[in-house]
Amino acid sequence: MTLHAERVSWRRGGALVVDGVTVQPAPGSTVALLGPNGSGKSSLLRLLQGVARPDTGTVTLDGADLSGMRRREIARAVATVTQHAETDADIIVRDVVRLGRTPHRPLLGGDTAEDERAIDRALAHVGLTEKARQRWHTLSGGERQRAHIARALAQEPRELLLDEPTNHLDIRHQLELLALVAELPVTAVIALHDLNLAAMFCDVVLVLRSGRVVAGGPPADVLTPALIADVYGVRAHVAHDHVSGRISVAFQAGAPEPLHVAP
Amino acid sequence: MALALSVAVAVTLGPADVSLVNVRDILLNHLRLADIPVRAAEDAIVWEERLPRALVAAACGAGLGLCGAILQSLLRNPLADPFVLGVSSGASTGAVLIGVLGIGGGALGVSGGAFIGALAAFGVVLLLARFSTGGTSSVVLAGVASTQFFSALTSLVVFGFADADETRGVMFWLLGSLEGMRWDDVVLLSVVVAAGGVICIASARSLDAFAFGEDVAASLGIHVARTRVLLLVLTALLTAALVSVAGAIGFVGLVLPHAARLLFGQLHSRVIPATAALGAVFMVWVDAASRVVFAPTPLPVGVGTALVGVPVFVLLLVRRRGHA
After folding, report:
1. Where's the ABC transporter domain (chain A) (predicted)?
2. Could you read off the pLDDT of A34-63 as tens digits, one per residue?
């Protein structure tokens, strides 16, 4: 059992931003949410996180409806990394990661040895142990994003939701970050723009358009030139690497053939 | 410790000379721990005048500091202070409406008017913030807008209806004044500030979680809307109580939390008690200074806090630039 969304719909400011979406990631798998801007990726993540409630349908965690659970309870199982979360606070990396222990701690009282161990493990996992005492503002963009992942890991979640975690990162950091996430012993749902990153690191991709799922499955099955033309309105060549079984997408200038243009 | 010492020393300062030993004797007498002969005049000055005043100053400093620390974290705005919610200007309007126009027929008193005005202004700010997008910056904007509005309203009443004496009284009150504090003021404010302090310390972890914004706080298991409303209402009540007793004392809530962060780091479990303690000591000294410097004419304590607070604040700003 894990985090499931069952035919969820969400109307936000009059517009239907999520429309009858079902997500059922296999435990431990890495799922990419794809789709153009405004297709409902972030909104779907908000529903999965339980910070917004669907108008219809249900999001369940181990079979229990998320809307009936306390936020602390959810936060012990589901962690989120948003894009570009920043702070003005003059805070050290270890204290940022320490925030991840928030849902595990009582109202009053200090950190336990278990808290410290979880923080150590999380820092080691993302390779920031050496930088634990550094100030947040001295970190590079890639390091900040890794610190956020460490903060999420300190929550000791089973599910990790990431909203475009690779934005603003250079290519090496993008690859490192997603390799890290794919290796984590959690179920990960990642909203992504880059189809190649999704193809490289994710077990399953879910393609959204106007809040609806238009395709889902292993990247090699889903990401065809026809679908890319249909959903994104661009021309693409998809190459299959027979050794790795992975695909790669190369975009081409010019509009796709009229046949494939979405109505 | 530092606070107790500050209060004790502050009590000795003033036009009538009272030594620390005298103060100790007077305190011991009143606590029924001793029966030491002291002069009645000194006893009256210390017990009826300076001590309650110093204690109210300490409570105000602690309370305003707490409000500032909470608001700066909650609204993620380093310029937020208790008056950003429009509470103090609302209090002034309430006070002048009662004090100058005599609305309510004296049943309420100027303090009651200030309290009601403060809460009314806070209500207006929350409504305004709700009608706009509802984010934290809209709370700040709504606060600034309603501050301007209520200040204008206050000026209108003073300009249109107050005579010279009343104007002087209102001015004094607008700038913050600890003249004529009594023991019931001390009891009221200590209870309010202590209760507020306990809630603030209990919320320290939640406030830490707000460092990266509300989305991150929510993902850490914080009930964002509930926490925000609870703490906003708490700061509004606290500020309203302080302002209705002591008037609008500026800059304590703005500057002291920054000073506490510079000295004790960012974690709220340390910032909150540190701000309260620093605020209390700071106010006791500023108040003592404002009594003594221009004696026998007392300076409104708000003038003192601003005169000390603004340079400190500029220093902090410059330091901040240096970091970035």
Report:
1. 3-235
2. 999 989 999 999 999 998 899 999 999 988
Going along chain B, which residue ranges are E strands? none
Task: Say whether B14 sits in a helix, a strand or coil.
Answer: coil
- In this model, does residue A101 exceed pLDDT 70? yes
Q: How far apart are CA A50 and CA A107, in angstroms?
A: 22
Of A71, A82, A87, the CB nearest to B222: A71
Which residues lie closer than 8 Å to B80 by C-beta, 6 or more apart? Answer: B68, B71, B72, B74, B140, B254
Q: Which of B209, B261, B267 sits opposite A102 (nearest CB)?
A: B209
CB atoms under 10 Å from CB of B266, counted, come to 19
- How confident is the model at residue B317, as a pLDDT? 67
Give B109-151 pLDDT, tens digit per residue: 777 888 888 888 888 888 887 776 656 777 788 888 888 888 8
Tokens of B7: 């209060």
Question: Which tokens is B229 given?
Answer: 């409303």
Would you state the structure tokens that stand for residue B321, as one six-digit string? 């630039």
Instruction: Decide: helix, strand or coil at residue B204.
Output: helix
Instruction: Tell me if A79 and B219 make a contact (CB, 8 A cut-off).
Output: yes
CA distance B254 to B257: 7
Q: Kindly report, residue by residue over A2-21, the tens digit of the pLDDT.
A: 899 999 999 988 889 999 99
> Any idea which residue has 């009826």 for tokens?
B48
Question: Between the CA atoms of B116, B120, B121 and B127, what dihedral angle is there, to the nearest 10 degrees?
Answer: 160
Tally of domains in chain B: 1
pLDDT at position B324 over 60 = no
Question: In this prediction, what percent of chain B has a pLDDT beyond 90?
Answer: 13
Hey, are the CB atoms on B323 and A137 less than 8 Å from each other?
yes
Quick one: which H or E segment has residue A226?
helix A225-232
All CATH 3.40.50.300 domain ranges of chain A, comma separated, are 3-77+158-260
Q: Which two tokens stand for residue B209?
A: 């979680």
Q: For residue A159, give the H/E element and its range.
A: strand A159-163
Is the pLDDT at B319 greater than 80? The verdict is no
The residue segments making up the domain with residue B307 are 2-323
Closest CA to B226 of B241, B244, B206: B206
% of chain A surpassing 70 pLDDT: 95
To the question of domain A3-77+158-260 being in CATH 3.40.50.300, the answer is: yes
Distance between A226 CA and the closest CA of chain B, angstroms:
36
**Among B77, B219, B226, B269, which would you mutate to test the A interface (most chain A Cβ atoms within 10 Å of its Cβ)?**
B219
Q: What is the ipTM of this complex?
A: 0.84
What residues are paired with A135 via a beta bridge? A92
Ranking A57-61, A114-118, B93-97, B168-172 by mean pLDDT, the lowest is: B168-172
**CATH at B134:** 1.10.3470.10
